[in-house]
From TrEMBL:
<feature type="transmembrane region" description="Helical">
    <location>
        <begin position="26"/>
        <end position="44"/>
    </location>
</feature>
<feature type="transmembrane region" description="Helical">
    <location>
        <begin position="475"/>
        <end position="499"/>
    </location>
</feature>
<feature type="transmembrane region" description="Helical">
    <location>
        <begin position="506"/>
        <end position="524"/>
    </location>
</feature>
<feature type="domain" description="RCK C-terminal">
    <location>
        <begin position="205"/>
        <end position="290"/>
    </location>
</feature>
<feature type="transmembrane region" description="Helical">
    <location>
        <begin position="398"/>
        <end position="415"/>
    </location>
</feature>
<feature type="transmembrane region" description="Helical">
    <location>
        <begin position="179"/>
        <end position="199"/>
    </location>
</feature>
<dbReference type="GO" id="GO:0006813">
    <property type="term" value="P:potassium ion transport"/>
</dbReference>
<feature type="transmembrane region" description="Helical">
    <location>
        <begin position="51"/>
        <end position="70"/>
    </location>
</feature>
<keyword id="KW-0813">Transport</keyword>
<protein>
    <submittedName>
        <fullName>Di/tricarboxylate transporter</fullName>
    </submittedName>
</protein>
<dbReference type="InterPro" id="IPR004680">
    <property type="entry name" value="Cit_transptr-like_dom"/>
</dbReference>
<keyword id="KW-0677">Repeat</keyword>
<dbReference type="Pfam" id="PF02080">
    <property type="entry name" value="TrkA_C"/>
</dbReference>
<dbReference type="GO" id="GO:0008324">
    <property type="term" value="F:monoatomic cation transmembrane transporter activity"/>
</dbReference>
<dbReference type="InterPro" id="IPR006037">
    <property type="entry name" value="RCK_C"/>
</dbReference>
<keyword id="KW-0812">Transmembrane</keyword>
<keyword id="KW-0472">Membrane</keyword>
Length: 592
């Protein structure tokens, strides 16, 4: 009983930290694992065995394959077909959500959304109207798509591995399809009909509106004879004025230097295009003797040149920018990139841009060299929202990854190779085929997810070994006392859905699966419907933005507030539960 109380206390503390979200989920999971090891709940020899678990290897391999498919332009090629849909907003939404759902069945939800969000924003200029009306349905569609196959989402991979350990055989790659595909179709039809009513457009963006008013940021300053800092560099200028600002362009007569280098020396009669708030601007004028030279539409005239671009991007859920500011990271000094504006939930954040601490879903407007901007986005885990050039390197590059992926799916579906072996081999083949460079092999694995899984799998085993899973199962069965076993499965499904909306869905699957197995064992029924209930409940967190990375990615571009998600997410969740229960029981009967 002591072990049950200890593992319960550790997991409750971990859940509280997950919800608090002060520390990243992988760190919390590792701390919980170490605590369990210290108290002897996880044997010393098994503390790190989770990192060698087939589910962890499969997730890492699927992430590599997803990046290879993204990099080769497979999804881009499909997204380009959206231009043929026409200007009808309903057809555009159907096409965007349908394609996002389809792609998410085979590659990562986040990778799909990173490509499809810019497509949706571009189409919003040609008839889609408020992009917010389609971005949330797209995010939910990516979650629905993940339920269609075993490789569509980490919870499915985890559940398949847990079944292997408990029953001796794993779920197949398409065993999830009858339930997942039906739920995806039902969910899509519901969103096509009701999202226009249930998804708010307040504060969101459309073709005519931008969350940035650059005219309130940019000002011309004329350098008269006798002004201070003449012949000094822009670096010295920016160092002298301690407040946050940036010189985004310099005008010398008819010549304009966009994003001038920091070593540029200020000359008499230069006109500096300054990005600064009113208070900082006054300090600059007082300290230097520069003269205000007001102009209109400066953002249109001086921000972009042949080599310099202004690109919008969204801060990803695992970005290195989170909790840090442009000043902390010295983005201007290290990369020559200016942070022109920041928008949060569709609204501009104006004061002291350099010191704003970034949050997931923030939308940034950056100015700099095009190649440097691409490196900055990749380095810091952000996703560009501007229309990107196609990454298709020819027919071979487009079809080679598809062939490799199809072979891996076929071999695993026919049982010729196990799923971990088939997909690890496919990831290696894509490296040897130079679809993904070797240097990018490890850069594009979502390591926090890998660490989370490696840490929580032993915790799930400890939950079962200590008897805590059986105790929790008894409590759940007591709630449904006297009712059919199907009611117990419904209780399990609802609890898993609730948990997945506040913690990482992979962690929800690891923690709830042992409870589901214990419930099935106590009732003397098949474990499969209970495992499927956990898989569905963990994969579909619709009610909060923190439930999944896809939800976070659309928060900034869609201008959503935290409370906007449940308006579509709650009725969609209730519908999915209502459809999933009889569907699971039909495909996976309770009779053992």
């Amino acid at each position: 009983m002591t072990d049950q109380l200890l593992i319960g206390a550790i997991l409750l503390a971990a859940l509280a930290l997950f919800i608090w979200d002060k520390w990243r989920y992988d760190l919390v999971a590792m701390l919980a694992l170490l605590a369990a090891a210290v108290f002897g709940l996880v044997p010393a020899a098994e503390v790190f065995t989770g990192f060698g678990n087939p589910a962890v290897i499969t997730v890492a391999a699927v992430l590599i394959i997803s990046h290879a498919m993204w990099r080769s332009g497979v999804v881009d090629a499909l997204a380009s077909l959206m231009k043929r849909v026409g200007d009808n907003s309903f057809l555009q939404m159907v096409a965007l959500t349908g394609l996002t759902t389809l792609c998410s069945a085979f590659i990562s939800n986040t990778g799909t959304m990173a490509i499809m969000i810019p497509v949706a924003l571009q189409l919003s200029r040609s008839g889609l109207g408020h992009a917010s009306k389609v971005l949330m349905p797209m995010a939910f569609g990516s979650l629905l798509g993940g339920t269609i196959t075993m490789i569509g989402t980490p919870p499915n991979i985890i559940i398949a591995d847990i079944r292997q350990a408990a029953l001796g055989t794993s779920f197949g790659i398409f065993d999830f399809t009858p339930v997942g595909l039906t739920l995806a179709l039902v969910g899509l039809v519901f969103m096509w009909i009701f999202s226009r009513i249930l998804v708010p457009s307040s504060g969101s963006r459309n073709a005519a509106n931008s969350p940035y008013d650059m005219s309130s940021y940019l000002t011309e300053l004329y350098v008269p004879a006798g002004a201070a800092l003449i012949s000094e560099t822009l670096y010295e200028f920016e160092t002298k004025i301690k407040d946050s600002f940036a010189v985004v362009a310099v005008k010398q007569g008819k010549q304009v230097i966009t994003a001038p280098p920091r070593y540029y020396r200020i000359k008499q009669e230069d006109v500096l295009i300054i990005e600064a708030d009113t208070e900082t601007l006054q300090k600059i004028i007082d300290a230097t003797g520069f003269e205000l030279n007001a102009d209109e539409e400066l953002d249109q005239r001086f921000l972009v040149s042949d080599d310099i671009q202004v690109v919008e991007g969204v801060v990803g859920p695992d970005s290195r920018l989170i909790g840090r500011s442009a000043a902390d990271l010295r983005i201007r000094h290290r990369f020559g990139v200016n942070v022109l504006a920041v928008a949060r939930q569709g609204q501009p954040v104006k004061p002291n841009l350099a010191n704003i601490r970034f949050k997931p879903g923030d939308v940034l407007l950056l100015q700099g060299d095009a190649e440097v901007l691409a490196d900055v986005f990749r380095r810091f885990g952000c996703f560009p929202l501007a229309q990107r050039s196609m990454r298709i390197g020819g027919t071979r590059k487009l079809f080679t990854p598809l062939i490799i992926f199809a072979v891996a799916i076929t071999f695993s579906a026919l049982g010729w190779l196990s799923v971990p072996v088939a997909f690890t081999a496919a990831a290696g083949a894509m490296v040897f085929a130079n679809i993904i460079p070797l240097r990018e092999l490890y850069e594009n694995i979502d390591w926090p997810i890998v660490v989370l899984l490696g840490a929580t799998i032993p915790l799930g085993s400890a939950l079962e070994r200590s008897g805590a899973a059986a105790t929790l199962a008894d409590w759940a069965l007591h709630i449904s006392s006297g009712a059919p076993a199907a009611v117990a499965m419904v209780v399990l499904l609802i609890v898993t859905v609730a948990l997945s909306n506040v913690v990482n869905n992979a962690a929800a699957a690891v923690l709830m699966a042992p409870i589901g197995l214990s419930m099935a064992s106590t009732l003397g029924v098949s474990a499969d419907p209970f495992l499927m209930a956990v898989a569905i409940g963990a994969a579909l967190p619709f009610m909060t933005p923190i439930g999944h990375q896809s939800n976070i990615l659309v928060m900034g571009p869609g201008g959503y507030a935290f409370g906007d998600y449940w308006k579509l997410g709650l009725p969609l969740t209730l519908l999915i539960i209502a459809v999933a229960v009889p569907l699971i029981l039909w495909v996976w009967p309770l009779s053992a």
